[in-house]
Amino acid sequence: MLLILLGLICGVSADIFSSMATMKALVGAEKDIPLMINAYVEREMERLEYLRKCALFYEWQKSLVF
Questions:
Q1: Residue 1 DSSP code
Q2: Nearest Cα to 19, choosing from 27, 30, 31, 8?
Q3: Concatenated DSSP letters for 16-64?
Q4: Rounded-to-integer distance, Cα 15 and Cα 9, Å
Q5: What sign for the dihedral angle of Cα 42, 43, 48, 54?
Q6: How far is CA 34 from CA 23, 30, 39, 43, 44, in A?
Q7: pLDDT per residue over 31-62, tens digit each?
Q8: pLDDT at 6 exceeding the cut of 70
Q9: Hey, is 66 helix, strand or coil?
């Protein structure tokens, strides 16, 4: 009986520990979200700037032909 009770206590303790570790990982990941979003926005802005320059170049080429 004592062994069963000890087994239950250890099992609950292990579950709480793994849940705490998971929560710490989630909090750490949550802190990275703003950094990831800002990096994504920066890349998109660079891509759009490149597209804008391409459009200007093609308009310039078109103006030379006509």
A1: -
A2: 27
A3: HHHHHHHHHHHHHHHHHHHHHHHHHHHHHHHHHHHHHHHHHHHHHHHHH
A4: 10
A5: positive
A6: 19, 8, 9, 14, 15
A7: 889 999 999 999 999 999 999 999 999 999 99
A8: no
A9: coil
| Tokens coding 6 | 């000890």
Reference 21, options 10, 31, 13, 33; nearest CA is 13
The C-alpha atoms of residue 17 and residue 28 are separated, in whole angstroms, by: 17
Rounded to whole angstroms, how far apart are CA atoms 21 and 28? Answer: 11
CA distance 13 to 5: 12
